[in-house]
Amino acid sequence: MSVKSSVPRDIALKLCADIRQEGRRKWFSVAAGQCWGCAKFSKGDPAKMCGGVVSCNLVLARYTERK
């Protein structure tokens, strides 16, 4: 089973929110820019965010760190 298919949606949404919150505190970071664009262009719809949030590279990295 791949990591992408093993990230539960509720955990992915929580990690996404955490990553966006952390990015707001930084003056500049690539991750903050990626999250800003993702949230802006998806208009907050989780199904449209970075391929459905579950496949976001930042969420996947954070999820594999927690394991």
What does this structure look like?
The longest helix is centred in the first third of the chain and has 16 residues, at 9-24. α2 (9-24) crosses α4. This protein has one domain (7-66). It starts with a helix and ends with a helix. It has helices at 3-6, 9-24, 30-42, 57-66. The mean pLDDT is 80. The chain has 67 residues and is mainly alpha-helical.
Instruction: Using the CA coordinates, give the radius of gyration.
Output: 11 Å
Outline the biggest β-sheet.
none
What is the general shape? globular
Global structural class: mainly alpha
Share in helix: 55-70%
Terminal residue distance: 15 Å
Mean pLDDT: 80
How many domains is the backbone divided into? 1
Provide a count of the helices.
Answer: 4
Low-confidence stretches: none
Q: What series of H and E elements makes up the topology?
A: HHHH
What is the number of strand segments? 0
List keywords for this structure.
single chain; 67 residues; mainly alpha; 4 helices
Topology:
Blueprint: H1 3-6, H2 9-24, H3 30-42, H4 57-66
Helix pairs in contact: 2-3, 2-4
Compact description:
By secondary structure, the protein is mainly alpha-helical. It has one domain (7-66). The chain has helices at 3-6, 9-24, 30-42, 57-66.
